Amino acid sequence: xxxxxxxxxxxxxxxxxxxxxxxxxxxxxxxxxxxxxxxxxxxxxxxxxxxxxxxxxxxxxxxxxxxxxxxxxxxxxxxxxxxxxxxxxxxxxxxxxxxxxxxxxxxxxxxxxxxxxxxxxxxxxxxxxxxxxxxxxxxxxxxxxxxxxxxxxxxxxxxxxxxxxxxxxxxxxxxxxxxxxxxxxxxxxxxxxxxxxxxxxxxxxxxxxxxxxxxxxxxxxxxxxxxxxxxxxxxxxxxxxxxxxxxxxxxxxxxxxxxxxxxxxxxxxxxxxxxxxxxxxxxxxxxxxxxxxxxxxxxxxxxxxxxxxxxxxxxxxxxxxxxxxxxxxxxxxxxxxxxxxxxxxxxxxxxxxxxxxxxxxxxxxxxxxxxxxxxxxxxxxxxxxxxxxxxxxxxxxxxxxxxxxxxxxxxxxxxxxxxxxxxxxxxxxxxxxxxxxxxxxxxxxxx
Length: 447
Hints:
447 residues, Rossmann fold, helicase, RNA helicase activity, ATP binding, alpha/beta, six-stranded parallel beta sheet, RNA strand annealing activity
């Protein structure tokens, strides 16, 4: 590592490289094409940035191209790479869809040494001859398991045709995919597979929980969670109508939220992410546009308002918490059918068990209720959290951040929410019982 980069590495508080950073350093410096596999939050961006910066020549055109699946991830990567590149007087340009293309063209006139972008916009600017890659040394495909599918795969193949035949490739991903076995066929290259997932322990303890709650009660539960001191969560939705419905109702209940959706303007999406990172809003509601790669420091919780349809999506959603050794919790909303389906989907990797929620706390025993409390109770929720290495003990998860979360299994539940039909039936039963007692009293008087 160059001395100036090493000094900055230590100044940022890093004591040593993560497994993926160590493993890919030599191959990348030597110009080898690789596949780097490591868990979410293990420092992949720095893993490919630092070794490649040492080979870039200042003022010699674009030599490093980094492709990301979303505008948000591309912007985050740009910020990370720019911080390190500036130490070597290298420039970085961000080229993404949803942003002002004229401004991007202006940036490219200065021939930045590094370009970070989304495949569609990069390809368009190559076709318009605004971006030139004749001096390109390396192409990095971040979140490769997503980018090497369907249309984006074709875009990347088309981008590769604008480069020289000896360009170096780096594919990085948290999950393995069959397409990685076809890279020689797709790009005419041989790649070395570097998989550190089995030895990487940079991810903190993440507890995976279930909350048994009907669709009509999900917003109410988010409202309750908002009263937990310091609670902050990234909330995932499968469909925009559900997101809009929840956002409208939470705003009506004066819960501070922001929304991040694919249909928003780029500036609005950037503002939502900034407000959440700065702690100015408690909830960030989003679709899977946020599920990959984004790093939100010390995020204590992820909530799946809508359960994901695949194990891969679940893995990337929950990877937003528990990053770089921090602890986290994942709460999944659903009914019996939903939760059974989720267990079938991810049961091999995540152990889902019950938890109790009461009095704005998560506790490991079912709350003991008096008779008056039982008659007045109208809510019931079950949460499930998972922590395989430890035994069940008490835990209080009302602290100001994720570090307050106990490392033990926790089971928390509050009384079940009665449906309107059940409430009406209960009232009828109570009236019937009261009438029966009255009739008995009248018969005694006659006797």
